[in-house]
Amino acid sequence: MTSAQALTVDRATGFRVVNRRVPLHSGAATEFIDVTDQVEAVVEESGVRDGVVVVYAQHTTAGVAINEAEPLLLGDMCRMLERFASREDEYQHDDLTIRTVNLEPNERANGHAHCQRLFVGASESIPVADGEVQLGKWQRIFFVELDGPRPRSLTVQVMGV
Predict the structure, then answer these.
(1) I want to staple 148 with a disulfide (CB 3.0 to 4.6 A). Which of 26, 112, 131, 158 is the partner?
(2) Domain spanning 4-70+119-160, CATH architecture
(3) pLDDT in tens, 68-109
(4) Exposed, middle or buried, 32 (CB in 10 Å: 0-12/13-18/19+)?
């Protein structure tokens, strides 16, 4: 996918699908990065007035979540993920003497992040009405980093008329 890609599916109805890749760089091992403003900008740029926006992380050690941007809560959620799958535990995924699949040069010990990802979805779908992303009063969209810091990207797809 290119950084800017749009496709009009039905000229009679004006239905369109717009895809954007949003580059990110996490700054911590576990981090909730608020991407709401970037998602809203893609929706506005798309010209879609009514439809849906899908926010998707193409990573197995990061995801997307909607929650409140309250700093103490974000800290609580990071600690909860750590309790679920501590980076201090042992994971067979990290034992390169027995693992033979999907190996990369300079492989990271990140079994904990893959297990934490069980709690965090890969995407969120949010209605768009009258050109506005339909989030609740306290809702924000987060890219959830579980294996940082590192460069990442987020896919935003807007569909509608």
Answers:
(1) 26
(2) Sandwich (2.60)
(3) 999 999 999 999 999 999 999 999 999 999 999 999 999 999
(4) buried
